[in-house]
Design a protein that fits this description.
The chain is built from 11 helices and 12 strands. It is an alpha/beta fold. The strands form 3 sheets. The protein has a 5-stranded mixed beta sheet. It is elongated, with a radius of gyration of 30 Å. The two termini are 53 Å apart.
Length: 299
């Protein structure tokens, strides 16, 4: 459809309101503009279409025959638009909050606490989608995203949730096989890496270590979903990178050894991302609970 051939929507809305309400003043009150602005829009529409649509009769206006035909069509069309928008808004009001988040955060931080949200908000429906895929939030169906990194994130609003730096860890038993003094020594140990990520290559590159290629390429890498990675680390199946918040107790109690810890930006950690737009009631309830829970946990 050639939309450029249509008059501006502002002209059509002004004319439809004036025709339906019988005057420029009433139309102006409905559209929250002056009656002069309505009159100007109607005159612009008449000029655009090359036809008289309305004639003044004292303080009121009446439709010409051509104006009446156009008003009928616009009434039906704009009415359907209003109904579609209202149905969409109602569905969002009644629908669940849609949240995308990393599997590691879901298993390591959120799920042990989620019963508190259900208890406080029994009527709020939430759909979680754990994934390492980076979502273009403004263009997606999701209301909220929980992601690890350092702000800012372009095009969205962000709020800090859980401050935590990446740490390389392994069990004492695994480390007994090979002393680790430099980052490149980690190449000699099997790795645990979250499925869909390239975290080891990126981490080593930031320390000046290039991944071997060709026949020397590293093969002993086990790719696991985030919720399986930390348990595999605890079992000594490899050395891995994870957010320190997930293994704090393991390090303190000696089950895991911290090998290298990134000392980067103080705002590094998990953040809550959202559009710069109103949230549905369910999404609002989840956001408020999540911020309060993160604050209460000392994160």
């Amino acid at each position: 459809m050639d939309w450029s051939a249509l008059p501006p929507l502002s002209m059509l809305r002004a004319f439809e309101a004036a025709a339906r309400l019988g005057g420029f003043s009433a139309a102006g009150r409905e559209l929250n503009v002056t009656h002069a602005a309505i009159a100007q829009q109607v005159r612009g529409l008449e000029a655009r279409l090359g036809a008289a649509l309305m004639v003044r009769e004292g303080r009121r206006v009446s439709l010409t025959a051509e104006g009446a035909r156009l008003a009928d069509g616009l009434g039906d069309g704009l009415g359907r638009i209003r109904e579609a928008v209202a149905a969409f808004q109602q569905a969002r009001e009644d629908g669940p909050a849609r949240v995308t988040l990393t599997p590691a955060f879901s298993a390591g931080w959120l799920m042990p606490r989620i019963a508190g949200f259900r208890e406080a908000n029994p009527q709020a429906e939430v759909m979680f989608s754990p994934s390492t895929e980076v979502i273009d939030l403004p263009r997606s169906e999701f209301d909220l995203a929980i992601r690890f990194g350092t702000p800012p994130w372009p095009g969205v609003l962000s709020e800090p949730l859980v401050a935590s730096r990446p740490v390389a860890v392994a069990t004492p038993g695994l480390l007994a096989q090979r002393p680790i003094e430099r980052p490149e020594d980690l190449l000699a140990l099997p790795w645990i890496q979250e499925t869909g990520s390239d975290e080891w290559r990126v981490w080593l590159a930031s320390r000046g270590v290039e991944m071997p290629t060709g026949r020397a390429a590293k093969r002993d890498i086990m790719h696991l979903p985030g919720y399986m990675a930390v348990p595999a680390l605890r079992e000594g199946q490899g050395v891995g990178l994870t957010a320190r918040v997930f293994v704090e107790a393991d390090i303190a109690e000696g089950r895991l050894v911290s090998l290298f810890e990134t000392s980067g930006h103080p705002n590094t950690g998990y953040h809550l991302l959202r559009r710069d737009a109103p949230l549905s009631p369910a999404a609002t309830a989840f956001r408020h609970w999540l911020r309060a829970e993160a604050s209460a946990s000392g994160s």
